Predict the 3D structure of the following.
Amino acid sequence: MGIRTLCFIGGVIVLTTVPSPWSRFGWVLFVGAVFLPYTSVVLANAGVRKKGAGPSPFGPETKGQLEPPAAPKLDRE
């Protein structure tokens, strides 16, 4: 964020104080202030994802359902 702020402030200073041929540099600073945050977020989120590293984000894996207990056998005659 600091670099973005410096680009924006530098763009304002360059566009208001520097003669016309150098004002293009001010526009480059403004473009940097707009696209640097987007680029940094995309690059930060595009890291290599390892399979099986850490717990599942969806909760513990289920092993399957247990069968209900068998009814007790009654010995009646």
